[in-house]
Amino acid sequence: MKFGGTSVADAERLQRAARRIVAQRERGKRVVAVLSARGKTTDELIAMAQEVSPHPDPREMDMLLSTGERISCALCAMAINDLGHRAISLTGSQAGIVTDTSHTKARILDVRADRIREALDEDRIVLVAGFQGVSTSRDVTTLGRGGSDTTAVALAAAVQAEVCEIYTDVAGVFTADPRLVPDARKLSMVSFEEMLEMAASGAKVLQLRSVEYARTHGVRIHCRSSFEDAPGTVVLGEEETMEHPLITAITHSREEARITLLGVPDRPGAAAAIFGALAEANCNVDTIIQNEPLGDGRAAEVSFTVSYEDLPAAQQALSPVRESLAIADINTDREIGKVSIVGAGMRSHPGVAAKVFQTLADEEINIEMISTSPIKISCVIQADHVERAVRALHSAFELGDSDVRPERPMGEESR
Ligand code: ADP
Ligand code: ASP
Ligand code: MG
User: Fold this and answer.
1) How far is the CA of 110 from the centre of ligand 2 (A)?
2) How far is the CA of 354 from the centre of ligand 3 (A)?
3) How many CB atoms lie within 10 A of CB 228?
4) What confidence tens digit (pLDDT) does each residue in 31-66 have?
5) Terminal alpha carbon distance of the chain
6) pLDDT at position 186
């Protein structure tokens, strides 16, 4: 059972989470619970670091950030003990989560869950601090924003849990961010493939890595509300999903920046040098566009998007490449956003892209870059158009609650 930040934000919510955990135990289940930092704690810790240092040392940043989830776990253990059960809280390191050494975005390499198993055997409820581990060089690491989801999935795999329940502040995975689209519909199930595309394109309800990890290790994820009891969304293998709608969801992101390199020399190896440097700096690059050089000796222009978070690292990584390739100029646009449409059905259905472009055209929204996968179309647009674009696409593809029409009797379909 994993509880997100909003679900443990104050004493009353933390006690509610504790009661929910205890209720499962009383149904005869053995429970490992992963908690996030309370409310905005992680944001506050980041701001605190920036107050004392403009470019905080990544190792020390992880020492700082990992404290947020420890607070939640210790408090929740106290609350559970008061309910007459025995709980024990563990840091990521104590729980045996071993990661690589890339501070602030570490990857889990191994989970040595013996201590968790021992505690479960002693009939304890185990609380594990999310979002953190210990590196192969014995330093505390964190797993990137939203990383508690990945902690939960990794532990579920390690203890061979029946299910990994992700308790959050919405009722499950929706056809669009319900905060942006009030009419969005909760999906009762979604395939791994679609959920991966959704997480990668901005639906932060599940961290991308948690979905990857669950797919690789065969973990069943049930994403649901921490405030009500109703079932949420189950993430399943594609062969298990019963519905195959054309379009499953509209996702968006406003946390992107675009970098444009002007006057990149027209020769083999230039792109390899640019993107090699970005990879070295651990920057995730999204949509890439390189226009054709004009053949008259003039050089190419290369544009790509990175997450806002990675922008400083990307700029730093590009500066030596600029020198060595004699790139004329580097521009950065921070006002960039992205809207994406995801659905396994589009693989075999022509016309989806045309409809996306027409819908945005009708809204007079200019598309600046496009990228696709077999089940996703993403458009880079100006950030302040994102909200309007999401709503327009959601309604054009009839994804809302009000678009679900009652089934008609046989023979009346085609009118
Ligand atoms: P937690 O703190 O529980 O980890 P997050 O804030 O990380 O919660 O993720 C939940 C949020 O994800 C929701 O409040 C919602 O605004 C946002 N979200 C974005 N896209 C979607 C979507 N398609 N379905 C559900 N929630 C979404
Ligand atoms: N507290 C961390 C964050 O805010 C991790 C998480 O909530 O999953 O990103
Ligand atoms: Mg989250």
Assistant:
1) 20
2) 33
3) 8
4) 999 999 999 999 999 999 999 999 899 999 999 999
5) 48
6) 97
